[in-house]
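[step 3/7] fold_predict: job queued, chain A
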Amino acid sequence: MQIRWLNDLLSQEPNRLRFLFIGHPPLHPDQEAPFEQDNDFLHPPEFRTALMDAIDRHDVDMVFSANLSLYADQVEGDTRFITTGGAGGLVLNNDTSFYHYVRVDVSDDGEISHSMVRLEARQHPVLSTLESLWFFIYSLFYVGYVNFILLVAVFVLISTKLYTAIFVAKDYYPDYDLDPQPWLSKPLRVAMFTNNYLPFIGGVPISIARLRKGLETLGDIILIVCPRYRDQPPEETDVVRVPSLLAMGEKREFRLANVFLARIRRQVRAFKPDIIHIHHPIWLGSLGLFVARRLKVPAVYTYHTRLEHYAHFVPLPGNLFRNLISHELIKRFANKCDGVIVPTDSTEEYLRMIGVKSPTFVQPTGIEYQTFQEVDDGDVRKLRDSLGISDETVFVSVSRLSNEKNIDFMIDAIEELRRRTDRPFRFLMIGEGHQHERLQQRIDELGLQDCFTLVGSIPPDDMATWYHLGDAFLFASKSETQGMVILEAMAAGLPVVAVRSSGIEDVVRHGYNASKRRKNRTSGVSECNRCWKTMPCVRNWPTTH
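[step 4/7] structure written:
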């Protein structure tokens, strides 16, 4: 109907000048208007096409439109299309959107000329910035209710944070009115949550077993929640074995326990723990923290593992986990616990650096010193004969065969040692892990079979005999928080050569029980005043003895 009316009107006086005024622009300008949306232009497409045909057929001279907060001058066919002003919309007063008017002049002979006249209406820069901010806020409300809800939520969050920071008092000091005597005079019931435990051989399981034995000696009652293993002891009244959802590693040594089983929480609740001791910050450790909160008992976390060195086990980009996720995970978990136990001063320093604010306690994991002293010489001779060791110098190392233990570095060092000395020696690498086959292949490729032996897993009760078999203990791992095997080797009387790193530096201390490596400038030979006379090693190997 509108197009018919327009055609009738334009047909009445064909010789007159024709100016057409419409609300929405039929053409898109070359510049994008502020807050431009598709519905700011002429719709629907069929109506726009019919209008453009009418404009062309009746030789309309100029078409004026609004609805965009800018000035645009375009020519389509013989018609000039001018978009001017916002028709009540927002004007930003910048190079694109500014205040103006259009002047049109018609001469006596029918010639049309036009010009855009810009109005100087600039504000003070501060007022202009405030106005721009208001336009931004206005646009949030203008676009839809979702943005309005988000804006209100952000405002509430900021207000809550400010209120907490200003008006809520914080006491950063311990509660000195708390009397520990009632807890010291009765046995504690301790529930421990760990992602691995015996018969799995590793630093954490052995540490937990020793802690359990020590606490039980003091009269405390222990319950351990851990994964189920194929060769576990048949009957354990004080261990809750959890079936696995997933077993990882070539030998399926890492198990993902089914933390969703309701019976775990029932058994722990029936145990009525006084405290829950957590040994890992994820999985069963997270379940332990959840149970502690539900039962309203304290949760204590022992920091055993430098997670950043275990990025190769995680299905995420290595640098993302190593540099960000691992540290953030430790920090967030530790800050949710009532206390954190660390084995060395360097690990406590690390926790403080990443932002852990929970109370921390340095408590090294102990060893059974007499066990490593009291070894039968006959057992050592039998072991030596079974291995075919004659008069060679014997080096011993104990480690899980995994990337984070730096075993490849040890292989390189042994190869260098073989090339530098004629003195016969044997290196015994005790431990098992998912890298066994790859490491054995590398040993074979380098021709080290006669001097480098991957012994495999040895029962903990037999380890003292293996230590006494050696003349020196070598250790290359840089991912330790304490390194209990170094203490065991020392207890067995072995000199220790280890890579200087966190955890190791706390145990092997210069001037106390060790001396730092002194490098021969001409030969690259490390000399140790306490061990044997000269020890060839790889150049730049940072060691402590």
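[step 5/7] annotate
Residues 145-167 form the longest helix (23 residues).
The first strand starts at residue 19 and ends at 21.
exit 0
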